Amino acid sequence: MAVASASVASSTAAAILYCVSPSPVYSGTNRSPLEKRPSSLSWSSSIPLVPISSQQLRKPPSSITPSRQVGVVQAAWTRRSRDEAAKRPNKKSWKQKTDMYMRPFLLNVFFSKRFIHAKVMHRGTSKVISVASTNAKDLRNTLPSLTDNDACRTIGQLIAERSKDADVFALSYEPKKNERIEGKLAIVLDTIKENGIIFV
Q1: End-to-end CA distance of the chain
Q2: Is residue 144 situated within a structural domain?
Q3: Which domain holds residue 130?
Q4: Is there a domain that residue 115 lies in?
Q5: Which of 60, 143, 149, 175 is most buried by its number of CB atoms within 10 A?
Q6: Rounded to an integer, what distance in angstroms lies between the CA atom of residue 64 and that of residue 56?
Q7: pLDDT by residue for the chain (200 residues), tens digit each?
Q8: How far apart are CA 163 and CA 192, in angstroms?
Q9: Residues 120, 104: Cα–Cα separation, whole Å
Q10: What are the entry keywords (predicted)?
Q11: Which residues is 122 bridged to in the sheet?
């Protein structure tokens, strides 16, 4: 009985000494990569060990951002302001490039102090499709006035008839800057519409 109690006491003392004994000290140089790091409750144990060489310390910090961020910055710099766009007036927009094909026939009307001139021109080839003017011989000798409302209606009717003879049934008119479609200009355009021409 005494032998059994002595063996139990010795095993208990050995267990206590094993628990109380400090954990072995591990150094970063002597520890093999296969050995596991002992668990600890200190905050420094949660930081992973990263091997750093002296060559990496000598290199200056890189100022190059990732490629994705560089692309975003370059895309932002390509957006030009209005002032920079005004410096390049030769660059046409998509509408300016395609408008001459979507609306090929352009009507021009000019009012002078003595006469009224109108013509339809193809924008792509600059070819004149139809022309009418109160300065023509057949109108200059027959019309009582070359600039009144009746002369405007006559010019509109002639432009419409000559355009249809050239197989042109759709015209476009672009008013000038600060120009209003009223008065004699409105009479010419309305007469052209009444004679079967569509404005696009």
Answers
A1: 120
A2: yes
A3: 96-199
A4: yes
A5: 143
A6: 16
A7: 444 444 544 555 444 444 444 444 444 455 555 555 555 566 666 666 666 666 666 666 555 455 555 444 455 555 556 676 667 667 778 888 888 889 999 999 999 999 999 999 999 899 999 999 999 999 999 999 999 999 999 999 999 999 999 999 999 999 999 999 999 999 999 999 999 999 99
A8: 10
A9: 10
A10: Ribonucleoprotein, Ribosomal protein
A11: 105
Residue count (the chain): 200
**Number of structural domains the chain divides into:** 1
Rounded CA separation 48/37 (Å) = 11
Please report whether residue 21 resides in a domain: no
183 Rama class: left (phi>0) / alpha (psi -120 to 50) / beta: left
Helices (H), 118-183: 137-140, 149-165
User: How far is residue 197's CA from residue 190's CA, in Å, rounded to a whole number?
Assistant: 10
Q: What angle do CA 159, 163, 166 make, to 5 degrees?
A: 150
CATH code at 135? 3.30.420.80
- On whether the CB atoms of residues 198 and 190 are closer than 8 A, the answer is no
Q: Residue 84 carries which side chain, given as an amino acid letter?
A: E
Per DSSP, helices labelled H in 52-145 are 54-58, 67-77, 82-86, 94-102, 137-140
> Cβ distance 146 to 114 under 8 Å?
yes
